[in-house]
């Protein structure tokens, strides 16, 4: 809105005897203001709101104001959202008679204007005097769960009432049709969005958002635990990918003392293990005799004469078969160190935080099986060439807090991730770091400060073909490998044994199988990295792979000393020749209009962002081959923006400095800043949106 128009509007108010009545008369006689966007009526209303603040004598009171309030209330259900707050403020609706306001909202509700009734209730803070179930039911039937969340957002008591209502509806014996029947003729009615599955998801979302004790919703929690129970039986007895000890840990923590779940556990045991097997597990899980069927109770009597539960008979050649089929740690068992004290941990950090060190990093947490809250890291694994450190994070955080030094752990982890002289290897680092941030809030910005990291998940997508050692005959029939296990199989010949992946990593002491699994998960990253760097061509990768991985662009500018670093040690101690990067003066500044690029297909978000800043951008389509970027760059004189291993292929096909590797783990805005800084592109206000239609 121009300054001239604003001044004219304010002069108009000054001439009016009753500006409040004048505005109302204008709105009542106009229809434009009911549309979306900033209409002239909207501008006049907001200017009056500001004018009243500057002229405190204007607001009215008494009978005259009440009449104006009654007229405004009649308009509010039709007015656009951006006018609600200004009108409520101008006509002081918060001071109106509360019963009168409640009556008006009730009238809207009876008319079937459920959304409008809820929005007005929120604006006027009427929720404590309303029935939360009555107000929210039609909104849920219209798939307006976000409005329901807003309705209870500021009222803990209403949050609890709503959650208890939703939990009642999720009881398998409850008839949902009893709820939906009165609303059959409802406009925008979406019955497919009103079922136990959708409602239970909403319950979990509300529990997490409002930090409410899950015990308030026993039906939803029990149903989720039952699904977990069924999933665990599938993993153990159908897929056969969980060890007995691991499975038992999860069964006990899932079922606990819950009688209803104990009954389901016994029934599942009978189906999968027979009466004798069910009795053995009933004893192992300490199930009370009164939840056991007669056949299982009789078997349990026979078992009571034994001092302990029988171990499952394992084939004699089990360990030998595992060694034959799966990746094995090449370091002795005594070189895996489980650290629970700060004295041990400080010795570990001294070794890890050495310039030139290559570290395999991994993390483990207890599976949540869809329960409330983000997973918290229970174990941090750091693998060096000769040893692996397993850090008991909960114990170390607890000790540091007790000593008043809770910043000690985040300090070391940030030092590790931000040091460009230390190469950190990971697989899917982003997921690990978000769990780390949930464990320790001081680490929430670690990802933004990362330098010297190699995420082998990005390399995995480029690896071509299987390694020569891989043999189908040795594998036998088994679940197909995926993720890191598949990369290990491709590069090192044998997959990881993932039977401990879904372990309860919070339980102490850790079992021997868990310790070996955790150490292998981190150490295999060192071996993959070394193997790919030694022989990249046999995996379809560029010959200068070591340089491209270690020399990745990082957020912070490297020091002159780091830029001239010639060698990066491999895990085996061999030296890789790094890129020779002589310090040079920055390029001459250019405008976005003079800068033309072609973005590889994994950088479409970056391309769109640069185009908004006035850069001349060509985007590859998803199905295009990376090499098309080089073709376009040569024909049209563009700079190639790419990432990962495609950079190796493309930079050799264009002139020096005409191909740039972007950090794929960053968001589009951060990537754009990286590109603009590197090429010294100076963006002015007039460039922004200059290319947008």
Automatic annotation (TrEMBL):
Keywords from the UniProt entry: Exonuclease, Hydrolase, Nuclease
SMART domains membership: 35EXOc (SM00474)
Ubl conjugation keyword on record: no
Entry-linked InterPro entries: 3'-5'_exonuclease_dom (IPR002562), Exonuclease_MUT-7-like (IPR052408), Mut-7_DEDDy_dom (IPR037432), Mut7-C_RNAse_dom (IPR002782), RNaseH-like_sf (IPR012337), RNaseH_sf (IPR036397)
GO molecular function, one term: 3'-5' exonuclease activity
Region (Disordered): 543-591
Protein known as: MUT7 Exonuclease
Provenance organism: Sitta europaea (Eurasian nuthatch)
